[in-house]
Amino acid sequence: MSLDQLIQRCKKNDIVAQSELYKLYASKLFSLCLKYSRNYAEAEDNLQDAFLTIFKKMDQYKNKGSFEGWLKRITINTVLQQYRTQKVFEITNENIVEEVALEVDEESLSIDYLLKIIQELPDRYRLVFNLYVLDGYSHKEIAEMLEINTGTSKSNLARARNILKETIENYKVTQHLKSL
């Protein structure tokens, strides 16, 4: 069955087609959820919520643009909605922190370690960092998605980079001391 046929059947609430669509995209969308979630269990919950939203909104997909892109956008928005309702972006001081270059030595840091330290960032920093650095959204787009202003987006990105830089530097020192 082609993707177009699968989409059409999902629009008719065909449970078999929905199951196939889930199998086809669950792993990609789960990795996206994992990026924006605090932990594995939360990512699983977010994936389920995203698929519920996807199936509810299937009629809104008009076969224009990438279907996978549409799925990703719904997934990201589903996760972000959770944070918007928790008010994680209430910031009283928006002084923009100095921009820090974040250099990563891929040979000494594993992807798992990088994902772990990104997940450990406070919500507002992690979300902005992922949207800007990993998914390529502009500060204006991030501000609209998170219902914050662009200054807050820039400030949160700078703070995220500072935290990550410090964490990586501490990790490298610890690794160096272990090797002595």
From TrEMBL:
Residues 21-87 form the RNA polymerase sigma-70 region domain. Residues 112-162 form the RNA polymerase sigma factor 70 region 4 type domain. One of its GO terms (biological process) is DNA-templated transcription initiation. GO terms for molecular function: DNA binding; sigma factor activity. It comes from the Bacteria. InterPro entries: RNA_pol_sigma-70-like (IPR039425), RNA_pol_sigma-70_dom (IPR014284), RNA_pol_sigma70_r2 (IPR007627), RNA_pol_sigma70_r4_t2 (IPR013249), RNA_pol_sigma_r2 (IPR013325), RNA_pol_sigma_r3/r4-like (IPR013324), WH-like_DNA-bd_sf (IPR036388). Keywords: Sigma factor, Transcription, Transcription regulation. The keyword Nucleus does not apply. Belongs to the sigma-70 factor family. ECF subfamily. This is RNA polymerase sigma-70 factor.
